[in-house]
Amino acid sequence: MTTQNPGPKSTAAHRAAMAGARPMIEIRQVQKHYGDYHALRGIDLTIRSGEFFSLLGPSGCGKTTLLRTIAGFEDISSGVVLIDGQDMQDVPANRRPTNMVFQSYAIFPHLTVAENVGFGLRRDPRSRAEKAAAVEQALEMVGLKGYSSRASHALSGGQRQRVALARALILKPKVLLLDEPLSALDRKMREQMQVELIKLQRQVGITFVLVTHDQEEALVMSDRIAVMFEGQIAQLDGPEALYARPTSRRVANFIGVMNFLPARVLGETADAVQIEAPGLGRVDIPLANVSQADPGDDGPSIGFRPEAVSLVAPGAQGANRVAEGVIDEVVYYGDMTYYDVRLDGSAGFDGQARPVRIAMRNVFGREVQDVGTRANVSWSPGSLVLFR
Ligand SMILES: Nc1ncnc2c1ncn2[C@@H]1O[C@H](COP(=O)(O)OP(=O)(O)OP(=O)(O)O)[C@@H](O)[C@H]1O
């Protein structure tokens, strides 16, 4: 993965404010069976009012099913779903305080932009002029001011998705459910819409629940993320915690790239676990950075992100530790270069060589290193995670 898109500046402040917000969606022990297939396996989750929350996981993990149970499009087999304190058991989808935006732009091609956006106001008792003003306001919110009388079939993908958003927002739901809303857009438009969606969410203050299989999208947009595998939540955390301290190897592997080296546990103190890893030697891992191994792992391992380590000049001084090795592979990306480095002694316990990947931001004047060159790798114990 390359760099993350920075969200708007208020992101950290927004997350801090969200930590104390009241619950908007409470999901308790929710199970969903499709015949013999167990799609949701005991989901417990609280989403706060005003939060930008993402359900992230690989195809088939149950994230869409969970979103649809919140919307009321799916009955649950057992458990409880509360929205704003109210049990949704007998509340049909069209009476829930939710609205959904789909991946396919579900807008009516034969209607104008304004007719599409105002569609849900058909039975609204307000006057025609008041409704037209509400439509204008919703269009302005999504960046489509002046598009009212345009034909919907002539819009671009990004514009159609804005119309779909405006049409959902005009109904002032308490919760907006977004099912992969940006996945049909090209990369540039998707990145632009990500930032716009965050701004929009801050502006309207509505709780957003996003389903995505794109981990970068979830990291960029969310206050918190639930990572799902096989109908269960594997980890629920803010983006930074999820990236820096995944609680299992499986989550670590799903979110970006992580290097793994086998480790041997030597001992444990009140605040750290002492390990030995081939190529890195003896290291104290702070307890906060100790996570679970996955069932089926050979033994403990340590993990670190490619950008948590860097290539340095021979003899460089600093607080970090330095390991030596040989460059095995170089992949140049323009803004970044990925180096695979075989650390000396890394074929330690079992004789198997495991090159580690290092991501270096390219700066003008610094040459890209060649395959076969000796390399000094700077790393710090605080950036390692132990999976035991
Ligand atoms: N109506 C249904 N009948 C039977 N099985 C279903 C039904 N809907 C979903 N499933 C199954 O439940 C599992 C979870 O589906 P779901 O759509 O929630 O996954 P997902 O994580 O959203 O994946 P994707 O990103 O591919 O949509 C899948 O194995 C799917 O085949």
From TrEMBL:
SUPFAM superfamilies: MOP-like, P-loop containing nucleoside triphosphate hydrolases. Gene3D superfamilies: 2.40.50.100, P-loop containing nucleotide triphosphate hydrolases. Pfam families: ABC_tran, TOBE_2. Keywords: ATP-binding, Nucleotide-binding, Transport. GO terms for biological process: putrescine transport. One of its GO terms (cellular component) is ATP-binding cassette (ABC) transporter complex. GO terms for molecular function: ATP binding; ATP hydrolysis activity; transmembrane transporter activity. Residues 25-255 form the ABC transporter domain. InterPro entries: AAA+_ATPase (IPR003593), ABC_SmlMolc_Importer (IPR050093), ABC_transporter-like_ATP-bd (IPR003439), ABC_transporter-like_CS (IPR017871), Mo/tungstate-bd_C_term_dom (IPR008995), P-loop_NTPase (IPR027417), Transp-assoc_OB_typ2 (IPR013611). PANTHER family: SPERMIDINE/PUTRESCINE IMPORT ATP-BINDING PROTEIN POTA (PTHR42781), SPERMIDINE_PUTRESCINE IMPORT ATP-BINDING PROTEIN POTA (PTHR42781:SF4). This is ABC-type Fe3+/spermidine/putrescine transport system ATPase subunit. It comes from Paracoccus versutus.
